[in-house]
Amino acid sequence: xxxxxxxxxxxxxxxxxxxxxxxxxxxxxxxxxxxxxxxxxxxxxxxxxxxxxxxxxxxxxxxxxxxxxxxxxxxxxxxxxxxxxxxxxxxxxxxxxxxxxxxxxxxxxxxxxxxxxxxxxxxxxxxxxxxxxxxxxxxxxxxxxxxxxxxxxxxxxxxxxxxxxxx
Length: 167
Fold this sequence. Notes:
By secondary structure, this protein is mainly alpha-helical. 77% of the residues lie in helices and 0% in strands. The protein folds into 2 domains: 29-88, Up-down Bundle (Methane Monooxygenase Hydroxylase, Chain G, domain 1); 104-166. This is Photosystem I assembly protein Ycf3. Belongs to the Ycf3 family.
C-alpha cells in the first residue's frame, strides 16, 4: 500500500492532501513530481522510524530530482538517518554533499558541528587532549557558520562558543 494511503493522523493526511494538490498545480516535470512524492514518503517513513523504507524513498528521489537545492535536502535527510543509526562517518559524507549543493543549509552545518563535538568529547575521555582540541575547533568553525546563516538559532552552540572562548 502506498505510504500516502497509510497516514493515519489528521496532520499527516492534511499534509498529504495539500502536497498532492500542489504537485498537480505546480508547473514541474513528471520526474520532479515523482521525486517530490518519494521525498514526501521518505519523510513520512523517517518520522515513524522506518529508516530502511525512508532511505529507499530518498535514493529514488535522488535518482529523479534534478534540482541541486532540492537534492541538498534529500542528502541532508539521508545524513540524519545515518546519524540516528550511529554511523557518523557516513552521516558526515551526506551532510558535506548537501552543503556542496546548498552552502546555506545551517542544519547540516550544525549537525556536522555536533558530530565533531561528540568526537572531541570522546577524545577527552580517551585522554587525547590534542585531538580533542582539533575536533572542538572544527565544531566551533561549523557552529559559527551555522550561526552566521541563522543567527537566532543554535543558542546552546552560541553559549558553548562563548564559554570556550571560540566566538
